[in-house]
């Protein structure tokens, strides 16, 4: 597989220089295509020997690292954040590796819930960089791809920081992912979140093929947990669990109010009840191996029968019931978890009065449906709903927007449920040579088709419609009302400027802005709105802190300059 060319050793050892060097390793389309070709020729092709080689140069054995491993299509980051929060709440020194980052690459490597500092990032980065470049071999390049390098760096950081537990989120797939070098004796549990269609060119075109890749993280004698899956996906997970000899496989059931004793989960959305239950099982499995982190009054929960061999007729068991209510440290870990950009509400009344932003990085059909269920669009004359939608070029924007259809048809008035839709490029700031991208054109065209369908259904049912007939709809932002409700924006910043103009246009209305389609869209938006990307600790505490409330985000608006932002990458291979 093609790799980035080796770069000379750098003399500038600053964080900015480290960040610049890191982004020279970003995977490009050619390297992705090369990997796809390799996988087609050899289904069992693996990147893991390369990762193990790099780690050996750094004297790191990932199997000795106490760890929890999480794969899946949707919710693996949220699940990992909750596992980390629970274990940190028990006094464990935690490491958390996740992707992608929203603003800074430092977010990918967290110690005790916080991104490593710029100073530590630079120090660890240059040590790994120098070690790889000083030990050049013919088989592996000294400059691996972005994700492989940051994965190797993460393992080195966690080993050097002597974390009690490393919560590892898979980057892409699972079986051949760079994180899949964890194992016994350190690995405590494996989890699989909800599966869906994503990255099919790399993972396969069917849910069964995708499940095969995700289930590749399962290990012999290690407990495994999964959310409910389709029969096709569950069959593959079941077979893989039997083949590798997991200690047991459990299907997770959602948390109830009784589990939380009425306390709210910090992460919004009904789907988080399943993710939080999975997080509880993964954390409990780790705590059972490390009972010293349990309070004395709760150590009876650490007792567990020795794992039994899987029977020949193995099927996933109903989950071992979680205690009701959950122990207080688990409940507070769930209620204090902070994971921005996922079903998050943000207000900025000084700049955006009467306005609430509903922000979610959903970028698959299933996650968009979950997002819309959480958003619960209001249908009343006093509320104006606005959509900001943007997606990367490799996403099927038409398929994502098709999930809106049932929500567009629930309104009883003649007005459209979303009064305005802004189809934005993923650039945070505008550039002089910016043009409307093909993904924006596809998205807007799909949206107008949905509005036409809504208008036609209203006309057939005798309900009035404020929309003109489809024959009057132009293909660009013309004068018709229908076309004018769907607009192109060349940057996220311009989309926010348009929102401010619409706030003035509707002086007597509450404004609800749904932001969805990409984590890169979300990253740019929360950067512009100055939303924290991590928890804030008080000076007297280093292990636990409640997340800031949406109301605390209502500080004065301070847009950063373009040069102050960290570059974001879209490939995890």
| Counted beta strands | 15
What's the story with the biggest beta sheet? 9 strands, mixed
Residue fraction in strands? 5-15%
Work out the helicity level: 25-40%
Shape, principal axes of CA atoms: globular
Distance between the termini: 11 Å
Radius of gyration: 24 Å
Widest sheet: strand ordering: 4-3-2-5-1-6-7-8-9
Average pLDDT, rounded to a whole number, is: 82
Q: Structural class, from helix and strand content?
A: alpha/beta
List segments where confidence is low: pLDDT < 50 over at least 5 consecutive residues: 1-7, 304-319, 462-481, 538-566
Number of alpha- plus pi-helical segments? 19
Keywords:
573 residues, alpha/beta, 9-stranded mixed sheet, 6-stranded mixed sheet, 19 helices, 11% strand, disordered N terminus
Q: Can you give a write-up of this model?
A:
- By secondary structure, the chain is α/β, with parallel strands linked by helices.
- Helices cover 36% and strands 11% of the residues.
- The chain is built from 19 helices and 15 strands.
- It has helices at residues 15-23, 29-41, 48-57, 76-89, 118-133, 146-160, 200-203, 207-214, 231-244, 257-260, 272-289, 328-335, 365-375, 397-401, 405-408, 438-461, 481-484, 492-505, 519-528; strands at residues 67-71, 94-97, 109-111, 114-115, 165-169, 187-192, 224-226, 249-251, 317-318, 344-346, 355-359, 383-389, 420-424, 486-489, 510-516.
- The chain has a 9-stranded mixed β-sheet with strand order 4-3-2-5-1-6-7-8-9. A 6-stranded mixed β-sheet has the order 10-11-15-12-13-14, with helices on both faces.
- β3 and β4 (114-115) form a beta hairpin.
- α4 crosses α11 (272-289).
- The longest helix is centred in the C-terminal third of the chain and has 24 residues, at 438-461.
- The chain is globular, with a radius of gyration of 24 Å.
- The model is unreliable at 1-7, 304-319, 462-481 and 538-566 (pLDDT under 50).
């Amino acid at each position: 597989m093609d790799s980035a060319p080796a770069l000379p050793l750098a003399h500038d050892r600053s964080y900015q220089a480290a960040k610049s060097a890191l982004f020279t390793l970003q995977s490009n389309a050619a390297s992705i295509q090369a990997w796809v070709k390799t996988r087609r020729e050899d289904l069992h092709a693996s990147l893991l020997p390369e990762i193990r080689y790099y780690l050996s140069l750094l004297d790191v054995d990932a199997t000795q690292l106490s760890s929890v491993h999480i794969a899946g299509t949707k919710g693996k980051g949220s699940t990992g954040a909750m596992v980390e929060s629970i274990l940190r709440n028990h006094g464990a020194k935690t490491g958390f590796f996740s992707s992608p980052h929203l603003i800074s690459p430092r977010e990918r490597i967290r110690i005790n819930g916080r991104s490593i500092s710029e100073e530590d990032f630079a120090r660890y980065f240059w040590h790994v960089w120098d070690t790889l470049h000083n030990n050049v071999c013919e088989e592996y390049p000294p400059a691996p791809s972005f994700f492989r390098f940051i994965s190797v760096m993460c393992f080195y950081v966690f080993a050097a920081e002597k974390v009690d537990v490393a919560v590892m989120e898979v980057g892409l797939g699972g079986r051949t992912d760079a994180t899949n070098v964890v194992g016994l004796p350190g690995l405590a549990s494996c989890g699989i979140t909800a599966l869906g269609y994503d990255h099919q060119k790399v993972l396969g075109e069917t849910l069964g093929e995708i499940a095969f890749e995700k289930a590749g993280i399962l290990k012999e004698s290690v407990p495994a947990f999964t959310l409910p899956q389709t029969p096709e996906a569950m069959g593959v997970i079941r077979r893989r669990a039997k083949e590798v000899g997991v200690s047991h496989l459990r299907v997770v059931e959602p948390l109830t109010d009784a589990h939380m004793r009425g306390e709210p989960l910090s992460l919004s959305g009904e789907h988080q009840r399943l993710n939080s239950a999975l997080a509880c099982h993964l954390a409990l499995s780790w705590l059972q191996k490390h009972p010293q982190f349990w309070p004395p009054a709760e150590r009876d929960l650490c007792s567990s029968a020795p794992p039994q061999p899987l029977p020949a007729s193995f099927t996933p068991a109903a989950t071992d019931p979680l205690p009701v209510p959950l122990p207080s440290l688990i409940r507070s870990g769930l209620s204090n978890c902070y994971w921005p950009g996922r079903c998050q509400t943000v207000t900025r009344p000084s700049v955006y009065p009467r306005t609430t932003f509903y922000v979610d990085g959903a970028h698959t059909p299933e996650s968009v449906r979950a997002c819309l269920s959480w958003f619960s669009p209001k249908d009343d004359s006093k509320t104006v709903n606005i959509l900001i939608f943007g997606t990367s070029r490799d996403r099927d924007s038409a398929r994502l927007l098709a999930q809106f259809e049932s929500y567009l048809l629930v309104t009883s008035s003649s007005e459209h449920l979303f009064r305005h839709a802004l189809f934005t490029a993923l650039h945070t700031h505008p550039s002089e040579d910016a043009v409307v991208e093909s993904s924006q054109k596809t998205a807007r065209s799909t949206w107008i088709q949905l509005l036409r369908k809504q208008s036609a259904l209203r006309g057939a049912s005798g309900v009035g419609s404020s929309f003109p007939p489809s024959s009057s709809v132009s293909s660009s932002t013309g004068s018709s009302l229908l076309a004018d409700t769907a607009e192109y924006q060349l940057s996220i910043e311009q989309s926010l400027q348009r929102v401010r103009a619409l706030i003035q246009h509707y002086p007597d209305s509450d404004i609800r802005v749904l932001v969805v389609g990409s984590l890169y869209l979300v990253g740019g938006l929360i950067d512009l709105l100055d939303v924290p990307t991590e928890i804030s600790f008080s000076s007297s505490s280093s292990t636990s802190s409640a997340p800031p409330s949406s109301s605390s985000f209502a500080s004065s608006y301070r847009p950063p300059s373009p040069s102050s932002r960290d570059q974001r990458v879209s490939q995890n291979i």
